Sequence to fold (79 residues):
Amino acid sequence: MVVRYKNQKTLKALIALGEYLGFSIADPENKEKKEVYHINGVPVESGDPKIDIQDLTAIFTGEDIDAKTLRESAWQRKK
Fold:
């Protein structure tokens, strides 16, 4: 969701509201440019290396799950 604001008072109110409701404010002007490359016409950008994936590692380690198996088991359409 994008919320546009015109003055600093509005930004302060949004930050306070964000802390109360549990969302964060991102400033797109200060974001660093990510390198985007294409594979078969699909744009791909590298992920954020600061994200903690320890919980995911604990879930998927030793389960022998690949992307195809995950898609087939999790994305079944109900008939």
Q: What stands out?
A: The longest strand covers residues 36-39. The mean pLDDT is 79. The two ends are 32 Å apart (CA to CA).
